[in-house]
Fold:
Amino acid sequence: MDEASTTTHNSLHSLFKTFNSSELCEWQEEPSNEDNFVLRTTEDGSVELAKSSLNKCIEYLTNEPEDKTLKQTFFYTYRAFSNDEEVFIKLLQRYGYVSDPLLQIRVATFVQEWVEFSLCDFTEGFIEKILFFAEHVLTENGHNDLSSSIKQSIIGSKGRRLERDLFTPFVFDADFRFENYASSLIAETLTWIDFHMFSRIRPFELSEIKWQGPDRHKESPNVCSVISRFNMLSLWVSSTIVSKENLQERADSIVKLLEVLDCLLGLNNFTSLFAIFAGLNSVSVFRLKQTYKLIPERSKEIFIKISTLTNSKGVYRNYREYIETVTGPCIPYYGVALTSIIFCCEGSTSLTAENRINFSGFKIVASIAKKLLEYQKASYSIEPDITLKEKLLFLPFMSESDQYTLSLLREPRRT
Structure:
């Protein structure tokens, strides 16, 4: 073994110690067979990985030619069948398996792309291990450019890690009168709040229906937050309307909310749009026939337009077709994507009967998650009203049963 190889081996050995592994484990994997590695030909004639062991997957991802679709699927879903440290150990084993510079470059390039995609989810301790790999292992093998690239990716992404901590809660206000604010200002402020919450969602939260599991607040905290936010806004809308004793005031509130909906549509904010319209369509509000008689024609036109857009027929076909036409920043209605992921996960398993990773199923989940999270890339240029933002962050609401009791009081059933 030459001096450079010995030095690299020592660096890898030191790095493995940080994973509580005293020895540099060798890359061990049986030759490809029907049990550990299966490719399949798709309908369009392309070849894709159907199932494999984790070792074979890492091997395939770091070979030529590059499989960009599998790489995307892996980045979006690997936490459903593995974890950060196990993946990195496999990559280090692969890197140290042979002294082939080209293979080392492919492994290091994969690490760099992984860092760019997932750094926001890494712990500080894990990042230090990646930096050690870049600063010592790669430089000792002469891969200085890749070492610099990985370090720059970490420095650049750390800024995004800090940005995610800027969203802080404010004081709960039970006396909020939204009618005193311009509809456009309300819509813009809701959009600012929604985008900051939506932009926090990470790919790993969307695998394995984690937002419905017993550890959902730990494994899928940001998805749980946007779901809670949606429910809060919807319940606040219906609570606000039925809480008003005066018939005209109830009608005025509905008119105002419809104006807000029209503004939200212009801003491509489908999250708050669906939430507010759900509140307007709640049993407690929708039954207020006398109130709706006071709604002017212009407002009724908005109601019909939003009702058509949010119709659930054809798995929200109208909405799905409409969102394909929008340009600029957009906050999608995530309920459609989450429902699709649920159907996919319920129709397939993470692991095959042979305990191999089911990449065919994960590919579909990754595709849905990628399409949803693509909207995080284009942000809004909105400076929210600070006072209004504080009021809209935490909205008071009643239980659905209390709402219905008030609704009957406002407009009793006709015998």
Summary: DSSP finds 20 helices and three strands in the chain. Confidence is low (pLDDT under 50) at residues 159-172. The first strand starts at residue 37 and ends at 41.
